[in-house]
Amino acid sequence: MKPVNFIEMIGDHLGGLPPVLVGTWLVMAILIVFALLARRALNAADDPAMPDEGMSLRAVGEVITEWLDGFVANVSELHGSRRFVPFFGALFIFILTANFLGLIPGMEPPTNDTNLTFALGTICFIYYLYQGFKSQGAHYLKSFLGPMLVLTPLMLPIEVADNLFRPFSLGVRLFANMFADHQVLGLFTGLTYLVFPLAFYALGTIVCIVQALVFTILAVSYVRMASAAH
Q: Considering the domain boundaries, does residue 1 fall inside one?
């Protein structure tokens, strides 16, 4: 018997929307609701500078924000790296939430569809090119010409091909790993619903986190190279 796929069912009831689109909207809705609730909790605090005692929605939001700030700073190694935190923080949290959606029975991660993963790769491609021109202006183009003018005919096509391949490699890596992880999880949880699937849920959780980290780290490193290229 084919397992229930709630994402497909929702898409069918909404006029045949693709599952990847339904899953993406669902992830966006979850994150928007979380952000609004966390912001309301922060505004309701008597002293925003003082952390809450114990676990709260505000405390979770602050921990995530502080970790992302340090994470981007450590990976980028650039002065003023905090300006990158909103973009890469949103990217990481979106991918992580989308990956985790596949761990819910009856759901599938939208990141196991190339339409989404290539779109994310393209967004990162445009972003790091923008940061390269923003930080260096027209001098950024020199990074495509190689260290010596005599090597320009050789280096220019190599650099162009390398940059164009980056969004493709980001999308393929995320798609392939999440597709394989979801298939393995579905296969073994379909065989038995007792203790054995717990090991695969644990493995799936690790894969979800690692793939979100790898995608974000690579995207940050591209911005670092574009911003610091000579």
A: no
Distances (CA, A) of 77 to 54, 82, 86, 212: 33, 11, 16, 20
Half-sphere exposure of 31 (CA within 13 A, CB side): 19
pLDDT of the chain, 230 residues: tens digit per residue: 456 677 888 888 888 889 899 999 999 999 999 999 988 888 877 776 676 676 778 888 888 999 999 999 999 888 888 899 999 999 999 999 999 998 888 888 999 999 999 999 999 999 999 998 888 888 888 878 777 777 778 888 888 888 889 999 999 999 999 988 878 777 776 666 555 677 778 888 999 999 999 999 999 999 998 887 54
Residue whose C-alpha is closest to residue 69's, from 56, 80, 54? 80
Whether the CB-CB separation of 133 and 141 falls below 8 Å is answered with: no
The model's pTM:
0.89
- Note down the domain range covering 29: 6-228
**Residue 121 located in a structural domain:** yes
Domain count, the chain: 1
